[in-house]
């Protein structure tokens, strides 16, 4: 286990605040947190498992901040959370069986795809509900399962895909769909983090510094969503994600 210098601890805490904000707003926490871990000298897979464990704190903060928007969504979340949990487990297993070299090359592709997803136009349904009992539940579950496999595998912008999905299946507002996303992504990250904590090379000193920042940023994010127009915010985060995808792609394929 590596030691974290004070300068790296400050870097990780600041990255955690930014990542917690991005994660609880649009599911792009890893745009800030994953590169920060790489800058401390961690190899890609070690950085990723450490990142996933740290992002559990983003989930705690974002769910805490999303309580007003979560009222009335209990039935939907109870139906969909098992799909998220199984997807997170599958993604964690996939990550642990993927060589470092392959992982470095697949990350830019996944991140670029997910970043594009955030800028696609999304039109909420007219009936103003996040989900309807017994309506296409199997298809919704499969979609959540697939996204959460990606979330457990890497996680960068998995929340973007969930946000788009929840808006398309009837999100009342961006804030309500975002609140549901925070719970579902938190569940997927949580089960993946349990696996990583048991069998993967998690760097716990880095988790402490990054996780504390993620908790603060995650708590503030839903407040930002509640009071900020969504279109400029989605475009800005999408551009940031694409920029990072280009940078990581250049590093991996040069």
TrEMBL record:
InterPro entries: TM_pro_TauE-like (IPR002781), TSUP (IPR052017)
Main location class: membrane
Protein name: Probable membrane transporter protein
PANTHER family, sorted: MEMBRANE TRANSPORTER PROTEIN YFCA-RELATED (PTHR30269:SF0), TRANSMEMBRANE PROTEIN YFCA (PTHR30269)
Classification via Pfam families: TauE
Location(s), subcellular: Cell membrane
Keywords: Cell membrane, Membrane, Transmembrane, Transmembrane helix, Transport
Domain of life: Bacteria
Membrane topology: Multi-pass membrane protein
Transmembrane spans: 45-64, 76-96, 102-122, 142-167
Family as reported in the entry's similarity comment: Belongs to the 4-toluene sulfonate uptake permease (TSUP) (TC 2.A.102) family.
């Amino acid at each position: 286990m590596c030691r974290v210098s004070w300068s790296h601890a400050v870097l990780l805490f600041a990255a955690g605040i930014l990542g917690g904000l991005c994660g609880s707003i649009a599911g792009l926490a890893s745009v800030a947190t994953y590169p920060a871990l790489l800058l401390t000298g961690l190899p890609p897979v070690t950085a990723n498992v450490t990142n996933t464990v740290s992002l559990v704190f983003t989930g705690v903060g974002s769910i805490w901040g999303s309580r007003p928007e979560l009222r009335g969504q209990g039935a939907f979340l109870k139906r969909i959370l098992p799909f998220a949990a199984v997807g997170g487990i599958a993604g964690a297993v996939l990550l642990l069986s993927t060589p470092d070299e392959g992982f470095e090359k697949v990350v830019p592709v996944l991140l670029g795809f997910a970043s594009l997803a955030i800028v696609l136009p999304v039109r909420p349904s007219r009936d103003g509900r996040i989900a309807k009992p017994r309506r296409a539940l199997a298809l919704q579950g499969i979609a959540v399962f697939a996204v959460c496999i990606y979330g457990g595998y890497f996680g960068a912008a998995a929340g973007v895909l969930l946000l788009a999905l929840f808006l398309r299946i009837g999100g009342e507002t961006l804030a309500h769909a975002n609140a549901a996303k925070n719970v579902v992504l938190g569940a997927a990250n949580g089960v993946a983090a349990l696996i990583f904590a048991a069998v993967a090379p998690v760097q716990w000193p880095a988790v402490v510094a990054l996780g504390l920042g993620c908790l603060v940023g995650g708590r503030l994010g839903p407040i930002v969503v509640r009071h900020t127009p969504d279109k400029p915010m989605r475009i800005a985060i999408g551009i940031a994600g694409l920029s990072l995808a280009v940078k990581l792609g250049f590093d991996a394929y040069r």
